[in-house]
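[step 3/7] fold_predict: job queued, chain A
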Amino acid sequence: MNDFETLAKDIDSSRSQMIELERLLTGIQALAPESEGQGELEKCLALEEWLKKNGITQLQRFDAPDSRVKSGIRPNLVATIPGVSDDYAIWVMAHMDVVPTGEESLWNTDPWTVVEKDGRLYGRGVEDDQQGLVSGVFAGLSFIRSGIKPAHTVKLLFVADEEVGSTYGIQYLLANHDLFRKDDIIIIPDGGDSQGVTIEVAEKNLIWLKIRTTGKQSHGSRPDQGANAMLANCDLAVRLHNLKNFFNRTDTLFEPACSTFEPTKKEANVPNVNTIPGEDVFYMDCRILPCYKLAEVRAKFREIFAEIEAQYGVKIEWSEEQAVESPATAADAPVVQKLKTALKAVHGKDAHPIGIGGGTVGAYLRIKGFDAAVWGTLDETAHQPNEYCIIQNMIDDAKTLAYLMLQP
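[step 4/7] structure written:
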């Protein structure tokens, strides 16, 4: 039996332990304070204890201060498995936080209790991002239990705050700690497809806008005496949405292949029907192809805001809830090539690079000059009621990662 066969056999035998770890993690509600939670500390402590108990003992915490949670910290955890060489490290990076359950009546099971059925695990966080977390853990653990050394140092990184902007997670780490080296291989198992053949190397640029429009309140029967802030915002939302026709290039690396400008959240204005609102607030989620700079987009925003102000007699204030502009990881970067090689060798699959409209922690790494690839075999049930992961996907992805860690 060769080394990879030994590792794969160990992973295959770990099915019940994988489910056990998923069950442990799902039972701890690692919600951000923005979601009325207390962060990830309890979950991180449980994970630390589990890792030590099962043989992964080289652990280091990097805690970001956050006064909004009782503990005062948002933990980030690194587990190290020494390799034959330390010329570069292979990172598998997952996040510990989850999103709220949403409308619980839409769930068929208790969201915080893992239920196993028909080869699937159901529960909040089982796919996003515990499937990738568990796959990375058991890939690394297979080396320790088999007495085989990975070719290069393996680093398992468990970050905080991914679901709400990563201020206390990867952004904190990049700003305050020199963890990564230029040649490191960084894999983020937090996105993918049901066959595991897409490797995400690029993200659309992102702006989340908050727009507050102030007009003049009046009686519903006398709009002539007011300035209808909601009416102005309705027109504004349509004009911003139609920027897709101005920034109209396409790129088939992405799906959809175009830039998108979508009005989303709406705040309440007046409480009664017969009042013209003097103030109105709404939000836009804008995903822009990387061929356009955000400075270009902001200039068009300002042009449209000025037109609306002049037409409706209102004042517009706007802010960015989030803005990210990141370069792409090259399609022939080592991390992409190593993943492609592993997927072909282990599963006979031909993988290919893609871009996505969603945001991942990969963007922050790429901004700092580190190549990162987002990959996984999953049905993308993240954030949905009845979120699930397929157990065999978790096992197979662990094998893929183990093969990659074994290669010189």
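[step 5/7] annotate
The chain has a mean pLDDT of 97.
DSSP finds ten helices and 19 strands in the chain.
exit 0
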